[in-house]
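Quick one: structure for this chain?
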Amino acid sequence: MDYLDPEQVIHEADRVIAVYGEWPPFGDFEVVRIVFDRYLPAIGEGPHITAYIHMWRISGRTSDGKHLLYDAHHVVGIQFRNVVRYRMEWFNHQNVIDDILIVQAEDDHGATVLDAVLPSQYGVELEVRCRSIHVVSVEAQLPPNSVYAPDDPAA
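Got it. Here's what it folds into:
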């Protein structure tokens, strides 16, 4: 299957690239929230699904070399607009995804659509058929209760 390049297909992907210097690999990122909207006044006709994904960068290793260090923690909102259909399974307390895979397809009326999959490593798996995909938010933050929070809250 020929997957499309997310940075070429996702509108405003440059907002993510501005943080990481490139479109990051999605392996091990975590979906922290999913919002379903039937209509958004600023956008119009829906429905729309927005997945909020905790992203980061590996910045090195601990001095003993046994553990990775992470920085540039952001929660990025990726919105699937004009959703035709979706499937979601296994949403849980962690929701680690493996990638974002996108292919171009045709709907039942011959119109061009995008089929996107956030495959599961552990937790949620989301498949969406939609008309377009957009980055709608990029917020520097570490989500509450993150496994990446420092052991020492004062750190």
